[in-house]
Specification:
heterodimer, A: about 350 residues, mainly beta, eight-stranded antiparallel β-sheet, six-stranded antiparallel beta barrel, 4 helices, 21 strands, about 15% helix, about 40% strand, B: about 90 residues, alpha/beta, five-stranded mixed β-sheet, about 35% strand
C-alpha cells in the first residue's frame, strides 16, 4: 500500500443516510453513469481487492458477528461519499453489531453501514401483481383473456387522448385485436380487479417478419393512472435511438421490479414466437440487453439511466442452470421510435 | 461459430462508440445461413472495438449448427449462446 493510513472513520452509518449520499454523488456529476468509478485505478483499491480475494472478507465476517457483507467501496466521510477514497465497507444487520469493529483494518479505513437483514431481490419489497392506486407504469396489466404483463408508460395521440403502452401480446389476444376490450389492473393472473383502459390498436402480428410487439389502450379515467414509472420515480424524459451497444439501461417491470443491464446487441432478428393465435412470428431490428426481465415483465419500457426511453421489452432467452433454476441470457426489446411511429402516439 | 467465452456485458460497455455497420452488412448478406432452423435469434454486438455477430441457438441444436455456421464471415467473428425463447 503506497499511501499512509487515512483518518479513521467514526461510528456506524444508517443505510438511508448512506444511500442518500450515493445519490448525491451521482447527481453531482462526479460519477459517469456509463463507466462508474474504477476502484482498481487507486493503489489502495488494488490492495483492498487483493486482501478481500485472499479471504479477508470471510475473516472479517467471522471475526465480527452480525456482519452480513464486506465490500471494496468508497468511503463515507463528513456526510458524503468521497469519490477518491476507497475503503472497506462492512454491512451489519443491526447497530449493536458495530461496537467491536475497528475504524481501520490493516491500516485501511473502514465504514460500517447498518443495513439490516440481507434478502434476495426476488424476496424484497417488490411483489408481482400488487394492486396500486393510482396505477403506475411498471405495474401489472393485461387484456381480460391474457394472464399478465406490464404497463410500460403513458403515451398520447394528437387529440391528447391518453393511452397505456405495452406489448400486443399483453393488451390483446387476437389479431388485430378487438377495439374496446377491457384492459385490467392487476393482470387477470392477479385477479384483474380494475378496468383502467380499452384496447385501441396494435402493431400487427403476422407469420414472418414483424416490426414490433406493441399496442396501446385508451385510458378510461386519467385520475386512475400516473405517468411516473414505479421505482424509477419519473416519466420517460424523451427517447433515445440506438446505433451501438454498451448503454447502461434500467427497467421497471411487474415480475422483477427495477433491474439494470447493458445493451449488448442491435439489429436483432428473433423468433419463431407464437402469440395471439399467430405462429412463426419473427421480430426484426430488436434491441438486445443482458438478461434483466422475466415472464410478466413484457411491456416494460427499457430506459437509459437518464430515463430516456429506448425500447419496449417483449421477450428473452432463458436457460436452466446446473441447479435447476431458470437464468436469463438476454432480454429483447422493440425500438421505441418504431413503436411510437407505428402506433401514432408520443410519450405523455 | 464459437461458443461465447467472454463477458458480453463488459465487452459491450467498452464498445460504446464502436461502429457496427460492417457486422450489420455481413449479417444481412448471410441472413439465410445465420437464421437456419434451430436459430432463435441473431444480432450484432461488439466486444470493445471488435464487432461480432451473435447467434442464439436452441439448447440441443448447437452441435448441428456448428457444422453449418462458420467461426467468422467477412472478417466478422460469429459467436453463439444457447437457450430457449420466452
Amino acid at each position: 500500500m503506497s499511501a499512509g493510513p487515512l483518518p479513521s472513520s467514526r461510528g456506524p452509518i444508517g443505510v438511508e443516510e448512506y444511500n442518500d449520499a450515493w445519490l448525491r454523488l451521482v447527481k453531482s456529476g462526479a460519477v459517469d453513469p456509463q463507466t462508474g468509478i474504477d476502484l482498481l485505478s487507486f493503489p489502495i483499491g488494488q490492495y483492498i481487492s487483493r486482501q478481500l480475494a485472499k479471504g479477508e472478507d470471510s475473516a472479517l465476517m467471522g471475526n465480527y458477528p452480525g456482519t452480513v457483507g464486506v465490500a471494496l467501496s468508497l468511503r463515507y466521510r463528513n456526510g458524503e461519499i468521497q469519490p477518491n477514497e476507497p475503503c472497506i465497507t462492512l454491512f451489519v444487520s443491526e447497530e449493536a453489531a458495530t461496537s467491536r469493529i475497528p475504524s481501520e483494518f490493516q491500516e485501511i479505513p473502514t465504514n460500517v453501514v447498518v443495513a439490516g437483514t440481507p434478502v434476495l431481490n426476488a424476496g424484497g419489497p417488490h411483489t408481482p401483481g400488487t394492486p396500486v392506486n393510482p396505477v403506475e407504469p411498471g405495474c401489472s396489466v393485461s387484456h381480460s383473456r391474457v394472464s399478465c404483463g406490464t404497463f410500460g408508460c403513458l403515451v398520447r395521440d394528437d387529440d391528447n387522448k391518453q393511452y397505456v403502452l405495452s406489448c400486443a401480446h399483453v393488451l390483446s389476444d387476437s389479431v388485430p385485436g378487438q377495439r374496446g376490450d377491457a384492459i385490467l389492473h392487476p393482470g387477470t393472473q392477479f385477479g384483474g380487479a380494475l378496468q383502467i383502459a380499452e384496447f385501441t390498436r396494435a402493431i400487427p402480428l403476422q407469420p414472418g417478419n414483424c416490426i414490433a410487439d406493441a399496442a396501446v389502450a385508451e385510458v378510461l379515467d386519467s385520475a386512475t393512472v400516473t405517468s411516473a414509472i414505479r421505482y424509477i420515480g419519473t416519466k420517460p424524459s424523451g427517447t433515445r435511438v440506438l446505433n451501438g451497444v454498451g448503454l447502461v439501461v434500467q427497467k421497471s417491470g411487474d415480475e422483477t421490479g427495477r433491474t439494470t443491464g447493458v445493451v449488448t446487441g442491435i439489429s436483432s432478428r428473433v423468433g419463431p414466437y407464437s402469440a395471439n393465435g399467430v405462429n412463426n412470428i419473427f421480430f426484426n431490428n430488436a434491441i438486445v440487453a443482458t438478461g434483466m426481465s422475466a415472464g410478466g415483465d413484457s411491456g416494460s419500457i427499457l430506459l437509459s439511466l437518464q430515463a430516456e426511453a429506448v425500447g419496449v421489452i417483449f421477450g428473452g432467452l432463458q436457460y436452466l442452470t446446473a441447479s435447476g433454476t431458470v437464468g436469463y441470457v438476454c432480454t429483447w426489446c422493440s425500438p421505441i421510435d418504431v413503436v411510437l411511429k407505428h402506433l401514432g402516439v408520443s410519450l405523455a | 461459430m464459437k461458443k461465447v467465452d467472454f463477458d458480453v456485458a463488459a465487452g459491450a460497455v467498452e464498445a460504446l462508440n464502436t461502429d457496427l455497420s460492417v457486422a450489420e452488412r455481413v449479417l444481412r448478406a448471410n441472413e439465410d445461413v445465420l437464421t437456419s432452423p434451430g436459430v432463435v435469434g441473431v444480432w450484432v454486438g461488439a466486444r470493445g472495438s471488435e464487432p461480432y455477430i451473435m447467434v442464439a441457438v436452441e439448447g440441443d441444436k448447437s452441435t448441428r449448427l456448428r457444422r453449418t455456421i462458420p467461426d467468422s464471415m467477412g472478417g466478422v467473428s460469429i459467436y453463439y449462446v444457447e437457450g430457449s425463447l420466452v
